[in-house]
Write a structure and sequence with these properties.
CATH topology of the largest domain: Deoxyribonuclease I, Chain A
Low-confidence stretches: 1-25, 159-166, 440-444
Mean pLDDT: 82
Number of strands: 46
Radius of gyration: 41 Å
Distance between the termini: 105 Å
Number of helices: 10
């Protein structure tokens, strides 16, 4: 008895599930038998039991009888609708006028066991309140041919088993929408290909208006195609994956809001093409349609090419700014190109001179601020634009000094200090000091002392070379460093702590200035004058030791510090390096790595752009390759040419020691060159110099530091 109860319960549950899947809400089914004198839906004799399916599920599953028609004067309705559920031959519903309302359940074209359902619509109105599925489940297929009328659905799915309120084309089986006219309105989403179905839309005319999203393949391993050869499709969004394709010719798709970058990604992936190519797809936002993204195809025409020019940062007091816009076209479809400049954003209206319809006008900004200007070109078919950002600043004199923009000849003003003007105050000071100090090369000259001298020097195994230097020789190294008049010394091959300490201690014994030092092992070190330098960032390994950083020479990581002159206006970063070993490719890789690291610094808005890289590059005999060549060819660091030379050591037979700087730093180097301190300048032969000091000569630059 207990077993019978269980069996009865199982049958009851199964009945519920089957009824739910077939009809969604357990409405009774009324089948079409075509037994009336005509084929009109509204003729009750055409339905089993001679009763219209109003309030019930209408089922058309017999292709051997006359197929139903909804035409002018007919008002038809049903709770739900199934067109062909397992019939091997197609079942067809034709709508030419009148109205058909499917009030509660879905409208399904072709469902289960090989059923093929076809809806032909050329007029009238159809409302599918719970969605339509074109091609649904289990070896069935569905086709919707539309040339006129209005079809309204909450959702559209081509097809779909999901039993969702959607317009689905292709769900587990093929579903096709062929549209040449009329209007489809969906208050929800439209899905092409779902649950391994293949959905296809062939559109040559009419309109499709989707309030929600068009999904080009949704959870399906089968492809879907939207062939937009005419008509207009509007939707909130377009979502695609690698199985979805949108092919454009004369049709238009319009999406809400700014979806330009998303659509461009689909184009770049090859998922959207026009006339067989990605380049013929044109996408724009807020140009063709206000506040919307428009996708069109351009047949055999090249859209205009527009360049608004490079972004600029200018000073308000400099007056009008010259724009560098260009706009070119292939002359099709119109020989002339309409050009217009407009202000997109900015605090106030700007003035274009001579007008805003030329490629490169001058523009005047009445107030400081950030302005975005747009150059638009229209060839009669395609509208293309490009934008440029102009940052207009109205700095104070102190701002100009702090940013390092003060002119070198601005040395005085009404208060006896620089005033950001070059005028008689500056001339009077220069003329008055001329006789007392007229040699710019004199490091002690007060008039020309507003600079920082940076010296790089490989001091050849200070602590452990053979024979080992004596304490007296190490002290002489310190004395020579003072004699060279440096403010920052970037040293390589420093050797042991006690040897290096002897050098720095000697400098502090003989100088009234205070000298500090930092070293990162036995190779790279920085010695700097704290009386003349304000330290912005203390010396340290570079990059930070935790960076696993220097991928080529673990024992020779670079060192760095950021400083500015005491009372100065802008800061400098110094990076000391020793590129090693002798393998040319490894040295080249090190230089590329250093270049990239400097670029990272320049990308940091808090970082100074005045960056100086210096040290022993070990470039090798062939300077056409290797690290020196990397810096010569780069757009980040530039090699500072030597005023004298050639040769920085080994009896002038090799070049190892260099400066490479950013463009901002290059503009601040006196003379734009570096200088080699040769032994002859100190009355020594090369051999005498090498015996006491090093086989490398010091190299220095003087950097202006207002």
């Amino acid at each position: 008895m207990e077993q019978k109860r269980k069996n009865l319960l199982m049958c009851f549950v199964t009945l519920i599930l089957v009824s739910g899947l077939a009809g969604g809400a357990f409405a009774a089914e009324v089948e079409w038998d075509g037994g009336g004198s005509d084929n009109l839906w509204a003729t009750s004799e055409n339905w089993v039991g001679d009763a219209l399916p109003t309030g019930n599920q209408a089922v058309i599953d017999n292709s051997s009888v006359q197929q139903p028609l909804v035409c002018d004067g007919v008002t038809a309705s049903a709770y739900g609708f199934i067109l062909s559920s397992g019939n091997a031959s197609p079942c067809t519903l034709t709508v030419t006028g009148g109205s058909l309302t499917i009030s509660n359940d879905k409208m399904m074209l072709g469902t289960s066991n090989g059923g093929e359902g076809i809806l032909n619509m050329s007029g009238g109105n159809v409302l599918a309140a719970d969605g339509i599925i074109v091609g649904n489940w289990a070896a069935a297929s569905g086709t919707f041919n539309m040339s006129g009328g209005t079809f309204t659905s909450e959702y559209i799915v081509l097809p779909g088993t999901g039993w969702w309120d959607q317009f689905v084309v292709g769900n587990e089986i093929p579903g096709t929408l062929n549209m040449s006219g009329g209007a489809i309105i969906a208050t929800g989403d439209m899905i092409l290909s779902r649950a391994n179905g293949s959905g296809t839309v062939n559109m040559t005319g009419g309109t499709i208006d989707i309030s929600g999203t068009i999904f080009a393949s949704y959870g399906s391993s089968s492809p879907c195609e939207f062939n937009l050869d005419g008509g207009t499709v509007t939707a909130s969004e377009l979502t695609m994956n690698s199985r979805g394709r949108l092919y454009l010719t004369e049709g238009v798709m319009i999406l809400d809001g700014n979806k330009e970058s998303i659509v461009q990604g689909y184009i770049d992936n090859g998922w959207i093409t026009a006339y067989g190519t990605q380049s013929a797809v044109i996408v724009d936002y807020d140009v063709t349609n206000s506040g919307k993204t428009t996708i069109i195809g351009c047949p055999d025409l090249t859209p205009p090419v527009v360049e608004a020019g490079e972004n600029q940062a200018v000073l308000l007091q400099d007056g009008a700014v010259q724009l560098a816009g260009t706009a070119t076209d292939d002359g099709e479809p119109n020989p002339s190109l309409d050009i217009e400049w407009t202000r997109i954003s900015g605090p106030v209206t700007v003035v274009f001179d001579p007008c805003n319809t030329v490629e490169a006008p001058a523009v005047t900004f009445p107030e400081a601020g950030t302005y975005v200007l747009r150059l638009t070109a229209d060839d009669g078919q395609t509208v293309v634009y490009d934008e440029v950002t102009i940052m207009v600043d109205n700095p104070t004199c102190q701002d100009i000094i702090d940013d390092g923009l003060k002119k070198a000849s601005d040395v005085s003003g009404p208060e006896g200090t620089p005033d950001c003007y070059v005028d008689l105050y500056d001339f009077a000071l220069l003329a008055g000091e001329w006789l007392s100090c007229s040699n710019p090369q004199d490091h002690e000259c007060e008039l020309y002392s507003t600079h920082i001298r940076i010296i790089t020097w490989n001091i050849e195994h200070l602590g452990y070379r053979t024979p080992i230097r004596t304490t007296a020789q190490r002290e002489l190294v310190g004395e020579r460093m003072l004699d060279m008049g440096g403010d920052v010394f970037v040293l390589q091959e420093i050797g042991y702590d006690n040897a290096f300490a002897t050098v720095v201690n000697r400098m502090n014994e003989l100088s009234s200035d205070n000298w500090m030092s930092y070293r990162n092992g036995r190779d790279n070190a920085i010695v700097y004058n704290t009386d003349k330098l304000e330290i912005i960032e203390a010396p340290k390994h570079w990059p930070d030791p935790g960076d696993a950083a220097y991928p080529y020479c673990g024992s020779r990581p670079p060192v760095t510090m950021v400083f500015k002159a005491v009372g100065g206006g802008y800061s400098f970063r110094v990076i000391g390096i020793h590129i090693y070993p002798y393998d040319l490719q490894i040295k080249t890789d090190q230089a590329i790595w250093l270049n990239n690291k400097v670029q990272v610094l320049l990308n940091d808005p808090e970082e100074t752009h005045n960056i100086i890289l210096c040290g022993d590059y070990n470039p090798g005999k062939d300077h056409q390759v290797g690290p020196l060549k990397v810096f010569e060819d780069g757009e980040i660091l530039f090699n500072v040419p030597k005023e004298n030379g050639p040769g920085t050591g080994w009896d002038k037979r090799f070049e190892c020691d260099f400066f490479s700087v950013t463009s901002s730093s290059m503009a601040k180097i006196k003379g734009g060159t570096c200088y080699v301190n040769e032994p002859e300048e100190f009355g020594e032969t090369y051999l005498e110099f090498e015996e006491t000091y090093s086989d490398h000569f010091p190299v220095f630059i003087d950097v202006t530091a207002p």
